[in-house]
């Protein structure tokens, strides 16, 4: 009865931590494609090929439901996977949906016409690939009108976090926020559109100012997953064991993940 959590690297551990706290009785299989991280600088075909290979591995580990805890994969690969690749008895979900539900205050199943929402000026911080896809803006436009979204590609932040260089990551956050504010001086809300970025939540908040509402994904995804499994209990797969898989160096990834979650994490080779 396992559920899969996929990310290109370690950022998805922020989602894993939240969902395990929300759903303590559900085993989770985490897959980090660390050998090919970051995805944010890859083209869409490359992201699609890597994502489908990882999801196939999680299907094999007993996961009928996989969460793409990677915004780049959600933006560049998910729609294509849903249209032509995912078996009829499996499900793959992305991380944009809970964010847009929170921002627009309407459920994903609400198919009424787009309407005005309270927040009019939104800053989106994401990887270059996510920004280039415009997937967030496209999904938001189906549900809300009159929202100005200014996107900022945050090059280097994921690499710095993966390398454990938080001083560099914080400096890059300040630089990217400054660049965003030159384009949108007074955002009302900010979307941290990468699952690595919640680790830098405080740095984003300080750089943006206390009046800006900062949305990060981990807790929103956890609540959305709990609701989904309540409505679709059969989508909890056959797997019974929690495990951590990586395409990268097992010892290095295990050590870094242990630092991330502040508890012992042991990966095995995917």
From TrEMBL:
Coiled coil: none
Superkingdom, taxonomy of origin: Bacteria
Pathway(s) the chain acts in: Cell wall biogenesis; peptidoglycan biosynthesis
Key word Cell wall biogenesis/degradation present: yes
Catalytic activity, as annotated: L-glutamate = D-glutamate
Record function comment: Provides the (R)-glutamate required for cell wall biosynthesis.
Organism: Shimia haliotis
EC number, UniProt record: 5.1.1.3
Signal sequence bounds: none
GO biological process: cell wall organization; peptidoglycan biosynthetic process; regulation of cell shape
Similarity comment: family membership: Belongs to the aspartate/glutamate racemases family.
InterPro entries tied to this protein: Asp/Glu/hydantoin_racemase, Asp/Glu_race, Asp/Glu_racemase_AS_1, Glu_race
Protein's name according to its UniProt entry: Glutamate racemase
Pfam (any one): Asp_Glu_race
Gene3D superfamilies noted in UniProt: 3.40.50.1860
GO molecular function, one term: glutamate racemase activity
Broad class of enzyme this protein falls into: isomerase
This protein's UniProt keywords: Cell shape, Cell wall biogenesis/degradation, Isomerase, Peptidoglycan synthesis
Positions that bind substrate: 7-8, 39-40, 71-72, 195-196
Record: active site: 70 (proton donor/acceptor), 194 (proton donor/acceptor)
PANTHER family: GLUTAMATE RACEMASE
